[in-house]
Structure formats: structure tokens, C-alpha cells
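Shipment paperwork, digital attachment
Item: protein structure file
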Amino acid sequence: MTLSKSRAHSTLHVSLSVENLKRIGKGEAQLGMAMNNIADQAWKGEGDAFKDTGAIKNFRSIGVIYPEVYQGIAAADSKIESIADLKGKRVAIGPTGSGTAVISKDIFAEYGLKFEDFKPEYAGFGDAASKFKDGHIDANFGVLSVPAAAIQDIMTVRKIKIIEIKGDMFEKLKAKYPFFSQYVIPAGTYGNEKDAYTINMQAALYCKADLSEDLVYDLTKVFYEQSGEIAAAHAAGKYIKLEKALEGITTPLHPGAVKYYKEKGIKIPENILPK
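Attachment content:
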């Protein structure tokens, strides 16, 4: 696996996640990155992406690399304060079939909204940002890094507010979708006076189940103990933290990773211990 410089401050696309897990499943790759929600689907054989393969069981988790942050914005002077306020509005939710569209459907449902309840705009965040600046859409959602260049670009023309997901609603989503985590967008990031709360998935590292325990132990050790060197080569490295290594992981760990985490005193949830 290599992390190209071009991926700095970008998101791990769903299609790449699916491809990496399928290649590991076929034995064509030993190691790969994928979004944790996509790994959860692969393990369970759920979602359109895995209709052709069914459940993929011959991969194992190693640990979290960086957050994939779900971000929604509206105009600062709008009356939109929550996803529940989007009924009847023009809302960008990513291209048809994209990870953003799929995730948005699940999230909006918890607020009692179906896509039929508003006017969906199927466009990537960048394209939708142009329409947002022109006032042609009311809200824009995407899975983006923080800070997102597209949101910063919008702010050169319009003041915005962050549509938050927090409190009881986050707890409700977390209970149903354990791969979600709470994410704090720091005050000042997008002109927000206070910290703003949303959710995130995780870009994580996965491997073939039959890799040797010693190899994966060494890989995990290097990955989390030399994150500074990774950060010097790639922006994603600054997010690699041992204390967050298992956050949002829902699929079984490799025994080599388990050995390392136990050695470091990291508590491992029972549901992700090796099967």
C-alpha cells in the first residue's frame, strides 16, 4: 500500500474502498485502505457494492488512519438549524450511488426524512458548492477532510453555518451504525464561533486474514510508533494516533494487531477480537 501525496487532505472514495476490499478478498492484495463503514458492509455482504461477492470474510482490521468527516452546511442567514429543517428544501447529497448519498439516506431517515421530502441535488460537493454560491441550493452535504477547500471557497462569497449532528441524535445513530464517531469541527474553522459537532467514518487499514502474526504485529507497531515520519511525508499521518486506533472499527482484528494493542494496554472491544 502506498499513500500518494495527491491524497493529502482528500477523502478515501467509496469506489476505492470497495475495490481494495474486493482485491484483498480475491487474494490480489495483502494490504489496503478502506472506509470503516464499507468494511462493515463487506463483512456482512450488505449494500449494492457487494451483491456480486456476498460477504467477504478473509480480511482483517489493523487500525484507524484518519477521519472521513460528514459535513453539511447551509447559508448563515437561513432558518435551517438541523437536518429536520430540510423538508421541502434543495439539498445536495452527492452523486447518485455515492457514499455521501447512501450515508445521507440513512442519516436523514433518523430525522424522519426521506429523499422524497426534499429536492435532492445529485452532485459532488465541488459542483454543488458552485450552485450553493449562486443560491440555487439550500444545503450541501459531503464526506470531506477538515478544513474542506470547497467550503472555504464558498465562504469567499457567502457566510455559512454548519448543520450539526450531536447529542441524542448522535447517540441514536451510533447505536444503529457503530462505525460512526463524533467529530468536533473546531471553533473558527468555518467562521463558527463555537466548536461544531458532526459525525465521521474512519479510513482504516485492512489486510489479508492469513498474513503472519509477526508481520502484522511489526506493521502495526511501526504504523503507530512512527506516525511522525508518516506525517512528514503525507498529511494523513498527523491523524494516526494509537489512542484512536480502534475507534469505529467493527470488523475483526488481525491477531498480530491484537498482540500489539494488548502490549500497549489498549482495551479491545469483544466484538472485534479475532474470529
